[in-house]
Amino acid sequence: PPPKIEPKPEPRPEPKPAPPAKPDIALKEQEKPKPKPEPKPVPKAEPKPKPNKVDPLLDRELKDLEAQRRKQMAARELEQLKSDQAAVARSKATADYIGKIKGKIKGNIVLPPDIRGNPEAIFDVVQLPSGEILSVKLKKSSGHAAYDNAIERAILKSSPLPKPEQGELFSRSLELKFRPLED
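RESULT FIELD:
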């Protein structure tokens, strides 16, 4: 029997893919970076021999400069340390001076019997270099008038105030804080 020839099926047309949707705003196509040409190796020149006379001089000068710099740094650190110590000593001396004044005044305070809590009163005191009191002004009341008046009387009674051991610590105007339960 003769072979049957089957008719070839007609190829179906395949649908073409939809073209990609273009955005409303056109994007610039990024340019591909051009490959950089490789740098050509620079032929190495033979090192020139350095004169031996210059090296020891430069080394010595460099060492001298470094030593001088170290000395200056050490001197600065020492000066800073001394100034810090002086500031601490001055602060302590000032606190001692104010403590002596407050001690003398507290010895003259007659506390009112009806005082409650530990109220604070602040006074501005103006004194002469001799320690004599020129004026006393209540800066902040304790809220207890009898206590405030007792402190003011004690300040005036304490005139002349003690002088500082170091004259430069003297202050013509003092701000003194008082609380009945603190020493």
